Amino acid sequence: MISVEQIVILTTFISIAMLLGSRYRTKNALQWWYETQSIEFNEEAEFAKNGLLQESFFLRRSIELLDGNLTSNSGKVKEKYLNSIEKIYDAVTELINHLSPAYVNDSLPLAIQYLVSAWKIKVTAASWVTKLPVDWDNESPIHSRVLLSLLNRLFQVILSQQQIPQQIQVCLAKQGDLNGVTVNFNYQDTLIVNKIRRIKELDYINKIFAILISGKFYYYQKDAILICRLNWKSDSKLS
């Protein structure tokens, strides 16, 4: 018969093991977040160097070579310069959107819509559906930035897999005292969803969301649909 002391020791041992396991998973989540952020920053730096700097150098060099020697081809030269300026403008706009997402300080629904629009261009094989309210209570910039960053990371994790969903539904809504973004990834095969929902990065997203703004990330399978939901409380509802 197990004594009370043995039960206490066993319970303590299990509690310590669970605590160590939780700390280990949290450490892995933080390391993953840091590494992915670092990679993204490096990509932005390379983008600025190979995009902005290269285009601006080309434009400057072309103007220097022109040196007032206008010819019958001046119209074509002007068009070429205008194209270069347009490329620089597009590159600057994209870099700004990387550093500060559009509408993030003004409207969360618009910010999500802008993010989805960018992903539509990248992933054309999927059909995108958004259900975003017109009116939304002011969200703190911190909450909006964290949410957009994790939503973007969720797209990166899921859409980097070999299988692309047939349809992606993004919905922003309130449920009681919680705000929530639900993303449904619709596939053809339940086996595909069963495989994708086991990706460890999904658990990392949950832990990072909890650490940054005490949010909760749920993900589960319903037939051939992977349902992902980000729940959080707005600043005004935080105790």
Helix and strand topology:
Layout: H1 4-66, H2 74-99, H3 108-122, E1 127-131, H4 141-159, E2 167-175, E3 178-186, H5 190-196, H6 200-213, E4 216-222, E5 225-232
Parallel strand pairs: 1-2
Antiparallel strand pairs: 2-3, 3-5, 4-5
Helix pairs in contact: 1-2, 1-6, 3-4, 4-6
Descriptive report:
The protein is an alpha+beta fold and 239 residues long. The protein is 60% helix and 16% strand. It has helices at 4-66, 74-99, 108-122, 141-159, 190-196, 200-213; strands at residues 127-131, 167-175, 178-186, 216-222, 225-232. It has a five-stranded mixed beta sheet with strand order 1-2-3-5-4. α3 packs parallel to α4. The radius of gyration is 24 Å and the shape is globular. It starts with a helix and ends in a 7-residue tail after the last strand.
